[in-house]
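Aim 2 progress update. The chain analyzed this quarter is reproduced below.
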Amino acid sequence: MNDPVWLQQLAADIAGADATEFWAWTGAAIVAAIGCFAFAFLVLHRARLIENTPTSRIRSAAQGYVELRGFARLLPGPPILSPLSGARCCWWKYSVQKQETQWRNGRRTTRWRTVASGTSDELFMLADETGDCVVDPEGADIHPSLKRQWRGTSPRPGFIPDKTPWLQLGDYRYSEQLLGIGDPLYAIGWFRTQAAQRDLNVSADVTALLREWKADRTSLLARFDADGDGHIDLQEWETARRAALEQVQKEHLEHALSPDIHVLCRPGDRRPYILSTLSQEQLARRYRISGGSLLLLSIAIGVAAVFSLTARGML
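Predicted structure tokens:
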């Protein structure tokens, strides 16, 4: 069967193309095909990891790489506010871009230049029915509950839409992503517990405290030089030792009563750290669709590169 006329014409154009131009485009296609192929498998591996990692409860989670599900909450203290819209949230990301038009050689070119941007690194909390976990968002791949983009006429937006409007005008473009308070949150990352109960050595802590007091001789004399002779005798030193013992025992008791603190953060290795308002199933499906699309794209680009090499008589 004869090839279509358009395909024959394309092969003829490739065969007659300048060698430099041909190798530039063909080399770029080969690199793109390999890159898309490799990235597709990374994305599909991420989907399998999400599907195969069992969900843990915060109270009983093992130390290490875990998957958690719960709700986003704020830690006690000042609220987290988005710098762009002022919205209360657990995490934000924003950018402000300005449209710039230039004329070169009689041709008009337009580009967007970023004039302001930022990403939240403030800690917040993931809570389930068994407990709370402090979340450090630094380095996480975050899928927020709200993404919106709109335009205006000044560096600061004059109005804040609920979602991306259909019609947009203005030389400034604003983008904002928010993870809201109370949003359902899926997380997979490195879990560790900073235990409040530690190995408490009373003798060592008393010795360390007395050494600290001795370093400040003026304060030591003011507290324990009962006869005012400018020296600490054995009886006065015993008084100081008992005071140090009482202080250490009090500190140990307060420490023992403090609850453990659970923290979720980026793993030290290359395993993914993901925070998502999508469910586990939705997130895995999204990664599978993305991975499959990249795989198909790599095959298409590869076929095009092979066709080009064939047209030049190199295959």
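The radius of gyration is 32 Å. The chain has a mean pLDDT of 88. These observations will guide the mutagenesis experiments scheduled for the next reporting period.
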